[in-house]
Amino acid sequence: MTKTVLITGATSGIGEACAIKFANGGYNVIVTGRNADKLNALKSKIEAMGAKALALVYDVRDREAATKAVGSLKDGWENIDVLINNAGLALGQEKEHEGSLDDYETMIDTNIKGLLTMTKLIVPGMVKRDKGHVINIGSVAGDAAYAGGNVYCATKAAVKALSDGLRIDLVDTSVRVTNLKPGLVETNFSRTRFKGDNERADSLYRGIKPLTGDDIADTAFYCAEAPAHVQIAEVLILATHQASPSIVSRKANG
Ligand code: NDP
Ligand code: 8X3
After folding, report:
1. Residue whose CA is closest, atom 2 of ligand 2?
2. Cα 45 vs. chain centroid, distance in angstroms?
3. Is 92 in the pocket of ligand 2 (CB under 6 A)?
4. Which pTM does this prediction carry?
5. Is 245 in the pocket of ligand 2 (CB under 6 A)?
6. Residue-wise pLDDT tens digits, 13-42
7. Atom 3 in ligand 2: which residue has the minimum CA distance?
8. Are 198 and 213 in contact (CB under 8 A)?
């Protein structure tokens, strides 16, 4: 039977790449996000590939809208096999005592509370069916703080704790939990973080061959397609010339 994946934040970067990868791999794909035009264009692209797609427009911070969107699923779409909790962002890179509290709140509401909302909405069905897989997009930033990373790193450390906690809570079931932790991936991430300072954003990827959304999507797909008795609990995936959040060699590709 065809499996169904639901991806949050599918309008860009890693989420969009996951949507294409899973569609190519034979899944029915539910793409979710805030930008209706981009979601509908992605839905059409997936359908042109011969796969089935559904678009749900909502902000993961809006619990009511998320509940309504998931509650609207019917005709088999409600039986989600894989949930990819991907929607997330970093805002700013100031010192913790100098940054914006509004930015901190947005990161916490999206990266932690949005992920929890989706988990709460989708996982009970997985438990009922004794089948499913939650793939949380964490980060190398959740393993260790770096200069100016403070709150973003804290949200990704929370993703690690929530993934580990969920895995413990589901140990009596066949539902699997993966925390997929990328390093530098060239997407819109840094442009969002630096709020339009594209020169600063682009400079992060200069002199190093960064990961791509497709690299992360390949890994997510590998985890999802592992045999049912195999639970890939955590994956740290770095560019070859990155060793930790702040240790990057720019010599090889400089
Ligand atoms: P992008 O900025 O390219 O994509 C982020 C996606 O999340 C967009 O689709 C964005 O939608 C969506 N999103 C943000 N806020 C919300 C919200 N409130 N509700 C719904 N969707 C939202 O960045 P990435 O693809 O790189 O980021 C995806 C995930 O990967 C994030 O969780 C990020 O923390 C994580 N990550 C990224 C790394 C990197 O180096 N790029 C490394 C490690 C982890 P919209 O277009 O509407 O803003
Ligand atoms: C994104 C990776 O190192 O830029 O999670 O924070 S990093």
Report:
1. 183
2. 20
3. no
4. 0.98
5. yes
6. 999 999 999 999 999 999 999 999 999 999
7. 245
8. no
